[in-house]
Amino acid sequence: MPSGLVVATATLLVSGWVHDQQPASGSDQDPTASVVRTEAKGVEADTMGIARMLIDFSAEGEEDRWSAVNDGVMGGLSDSRLVDASDSTAFFEGVLSVENNGGFASIRRELPRHPLAGANAVILDVRGDGRRYQLRVRTEDRFDGVAYRAFFDTIDGVWQRIEIPFNEFRATFRGSSVPGAPVLEPERIQQLGFLIADKRPGAFRLEIRRIEALMDAAEHQRR
User: Fold this and answer.
1) Cα–chain center distance at 167
2) Residue of 220, 31, 51 lying closest to 122 (CA atoms)
């Protein structure tokens, strides 16, 4: 699959809930958004619902649907991209820099109309590098504006199946929490992406195989 990016310049608990995980300090970290459910590869999923494919990185041309948005938009020097890793996976990779008031790198893509209506959570099939990442969604098609984020931790070199309930996402705008923001409504999500901002300069790499929506069983039957 060709690559054609446009550059716009959870402490881990396997098969359980993490309630006491504290993100690193900084304006882009929110301790209220740290609860995720994770599973090591090969452990049977303990989910209430039906997983439906949302994004499959084995699909032809999937990489071309993603854009990189890095801290260059505010003078930073971080760099990122989404590249082919194999016939079935892709890498979100790059170099994080904290120079020039920077400190974040991200990728995102638009979604089809209402793909997450009736969903309870997002499930990520990823292999990371031991660093903390964010899954971000947006309910508008604008480049800037309020986003909703949830944090997840990775184990270096280990495939993980990470379930993130939608009620764990918190609103943020340019790295700061948004008090009084509406609760995230899955049916309104129009964009989805990954971001790294852990204040650790250097190279990073997150391999992604697929992203699924955990559907309510009754909703899945209706669809």
Assistant:
1) 15
2) 51
Q: What is the DSSP letter of 14?
A: B
pLDDT digits (tens, 9 = 90+) for 71-115: 998 899 999 999 998 889 999 999 999 999 899 999 999 999 889
Taking only Cα atoms into account, the Rg of the chain, rounded to an integer number of angstroms, comes to: 16
8 A C-beta contact, residue 195 and residue 143 = no
Interval 150-177: pLDDT, tens: 999 999 999 999 999 999 999 999 878 9
Give me the half-sphere count of Cα atoms (radius 13 Å) on the Cβ side of residue 47.
27
Sign of the CA dihedral running 42, 46, 52, 55: negative
5 HSE (CA, 13 A, CB side): 23
How many other C-beta atoms are found inside a 10 Å radius of the C-beta of residue 201? 15
Element (H, E) at 219: helix 217-222
Q: Which domains does the chain have, with CATH numbers?
A: 6-222 (2.60.120.430)
Q: What φ, ψ does residue 166 adopt, rounded to 5°?
A: -65, -25
Parallel/antiparallel/unpaired status of strands 50-56 and 202-215: antiparallel
Distances (CA, A) of 8 to 66, 68, 74, 85, 102: 11, 6, 11, 22, 15
Which residues touch 91 (CB under 8 Å, ≥6 apart)? 82, 83, 84, 85, 205, 206, 207, 208
Mean pLDDT of the chain: 81
Stated pTM of the model = 0.79
| Residue 1 to residues 6, 57, 119, 214, Cα–Cα distance (Å) | 16, 9, 29, 27
Helix (H, G, I), strand (E, B) or coil at 112: coil
